[in-house]
Amino acid sequence: MKMTFRWYGESDPVKLEYIRQIPGMYGIVSAIYDVPVGEVWPIDKLQALRDRIEGAGLKFEVVESVPTHEDIKLGKPSRDRLIANFQQNIRNCAAVGVKVICYNFMPVFDWTRTEMAKQLPDGSFTLAFDAEAVAKIDPEKGISLPGWDASYKPEELKALLADYKSVDEESLWANLEYFLKAIIPVAEEVGIKMAMHPDDPPRPIFGLPRIVKNRDDLARLVNIVDSTSNGLTLCSGSLGADLCNNIPSLVKEFGGQGRIHFGHLRNVKVEPDGTFFESTHNSCDGSLDMAAIVKAYHDVGFEGYWRPDHGRMIWGETGKPGYGLYDRALGAVYLNGLWEAVSKYAPAKA
Ligand code: DNO
Ligand code: MN
C-alpha cells in the first residue's frame, strides 16, 4: 500500500511542504485544473506538476480526476472527439510517470451534499447529506446545492437536465461501454490503470441515472472490458453511504481480482434512510469498521494507492470543505497505524 494525499495545486492552502511532513506519506494525487473539461492536458503542464511534486520529495503517480465530459455520458455525436482527447490525456499522463487515473461517470453532479459545514458535538465541521431534503428538491424548479451553485448557470443546468431526460440507466451503461472500449486499450498500451470512482452517494438523484452504486454494478463494470486496466477506485465513504454495501467484502472480491488500484478511505455515519455525515476516519465514530476494511486490503495483498478521503474541518481551519490538512492528516496516520498492525499480526493470505 502506498499512502497518498490529494493536492489542488499552488492555489491549495494546504502546502505540499506540509503534506510531506505527514508520517508515511508517499505521494500526491492531483490534476490539471486550468484546462476546460474535455480538452487535452498539455504535456508541459503535466511535467511542471510532476517536477513540483517531486521537488517536494513526493511522487506523482495518481491523477484524480480526468473529468469525463457530459457529452460522453450523454452519448452525443461530439463524444468521438472528446474520447480522442481523453485517450490523449491517458497517453500524456503515462508520459510523465502516472500509473493510475481516477475518474467517474456520474451525470451532472459529482459528489452531492446538502450541508458543507455541519457542526458536530466536538465543535468540528463536516459534509452532510440529508436524504429527505434531497427528495424534496424539484429539479424542474432549479437545483441549489452547496458546493455546486457556482458550477453551472441556471439555464445551463436546465439544458443539461433536459438532455438527460432521454438517458436512463441502460443507455448510460451503453455509453459507458462505448467509452471503455475506446479508452481501456489505450490505457493498456501505455501501462495506465483506470480506476472508476463510485457514485457519491450511491443512489439516483434528481431523476438522473447513477450506475456505479453497489457490488453488482462494480462487477458489471469490470466485466465490460476484461483487463486489469479497467479497474476501480474503491471509495469506502461513497459506497458505505448505502448500508447494504459491505466494504470489506467488496475489497476482498475486487481486490482479489486485482481490480482495485486506488482506495479512498473515509468513514461515514449513516442512517437507514441514507442520511449521513462524514465522521472522523476512526471506526468508533462512523458506521464503517475501518480495521476490517484495512485487513481486507491486506488479505488480498494490496499494492496500490490509498488516500484518506475527505476530512472534517478542525482546529479553526478554513478553506475547501473536506480538504483541509489536519483531519486528513489524522486519517492518514490512523490508516497507516491500522496497516502496520495488520501487517505485523495478520500476515497476508497467500
Ligand atoms: C468523494 C470524492 C470524489 C472524487 C471524484 C473522483 O468521495 O472522492 O469527489 O474526487 O468523484 O472522480
Ligand atoms: Mn472518494
How does this structure look, described?
The protein contains twelve helices and twelve strands. The protein has 350 residues and is an alpha/beta fold. It has a single domain (2-345), classed as TIM Barrel (Alpha-Beta Barrel). Strands 1-2-3-4-7-8-9-12 form an eight-stranded parallel barrel, surrounded by five helices. A four-stranded antiparallel β-sheet has the order 5-6-11-10. A hairpin with a 5-residue loop joins strand 5 (115-119) and strand 6 (125-129). Helix 4 runs parallel beside helix 7 (169-190), helix 10 runs parallel beside helix 11 (290-299) and helix 11 (290-299) packs across helix 12. The longest helix is centred in the middle third of the chain and has 22 residues, at 169-190. It starts with a strand and ends in a 5-residue tail after the last helix. The structure holds D-mannose and manganese (II) ion (MN). Catalyzes the dehydration of D-mannonate. This is Mannonate dehydratase. It is an enzyme of class 4 (lyase). InterPro entries: Man_deHydtase, Xyl_isomerase-like_sf.
Q: Quick summary of this structure?
A:
The protein is built from twelve helices and twelve strands. It has 350 residues and is of the alpha/beta class.
For the structure shown, list the relevant keywords.
single chain, 350 residues, alpha/beta, TIM Barrel, eight-stranded parallel beta barrel, four-stranded antiparallel beta sheet, 12 helices, 12 strands, 16% strand, binds D-mannose, binds manganese (II) ion, manganese, iron
